[in-house]
């Protein structure tokens, strides 16, 4: 089974405290509508320095398959999505448009 590990983001404008966020995913080939996403967390804490506390793993995914991960601040505002492929070592890449990075092993 494959997985995606989210480790940190880089804020465009760093907040003064941790932010609670929602993490969702879908097959990249699926229609880009909110209903096509599977919510895996609505309580993930992202520190002011961008660390996801603790690292967040999306488990049980098919190997070598492209998934789009969407991270949204529960306070509104920042959200975006980024495609990751399971089973491939990826460098940190943009996960929140203009406001973040996430790593996927």
Quick structural overview:
The protein is an all-beta fold and 105 residues long. The protein contains no helices and 8 strands. Helices cover 0% and strands 55% of the residues.
Question: What brief labels describe this structure?
Answer:
mainly beta, 105 residues, disordered C terminus, two-stranded antiparallel ribbon, 0% helix, globular, 6-stranded antiparallel sheet
Question: Topology, please?
Answer:
Blueprint: E1 2-8, E2 19-27, E3 38-46, E4 51-61, E5 66-73, E6 79-85, E7 93-96, E8 100-102
Antiparallel strand pairs: 1-4, 2-3, 2-5, 3-4, 5-6, 7-8
What's the main sheet like?
Answer: 6 strands, antiparallel
Question: Kindly state the mean pLDDT as a whole number?
Answer: 76
Q: Helix count? A: 0
Roughly how much helix do the residues carry, as a percent range? under 10%
What is the 3D shape?
globular
What do these coordinates show?
Strand 5 (66-73) and strand 6 form a beta hairpin. This protein has no helices and eight strands. It has strands spanning 2-8, 19-27, 38-46, 51-61, 66-73, 79-85, 93-96, 100-102. By secondary structure, it is an all-beta fold. The radius of gyration is 13 Å and the shape is globular. The two termini are 13 Å apart. The protein is 0% helix and 55% strand. Residues 90-105 have low confidence and may be disordered. The strands form two sheets. Strands 1-4-3-2-5-6 form a six-stranded antiparallel beta sheet, with no helix packed on it. A two-stranded antiparallel ribbon has the order 7-8.
């Amino acid at each position: 089974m494959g997985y995606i590990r989210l480790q940190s983001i880089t804020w465009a404008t760093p907040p003064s405290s941790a932010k609670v966020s929602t993490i969702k995913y879908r097959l990249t080939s699926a229609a880009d509508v909110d209903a096509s996403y599977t919510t895996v967390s609505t309580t993930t804490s992202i520190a002011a320095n961008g660390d996801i506390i603790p690292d967040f793993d999306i488990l049980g995914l098919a190997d070598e398959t492209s998934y789009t991960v969407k991270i949204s601040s529960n306070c509104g505002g920042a959200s975006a999505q980024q495609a990751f492929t399971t089973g491939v070592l990826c460098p940190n890449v943009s996960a929140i448009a203009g406001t973040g990075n996430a790593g996927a092993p």
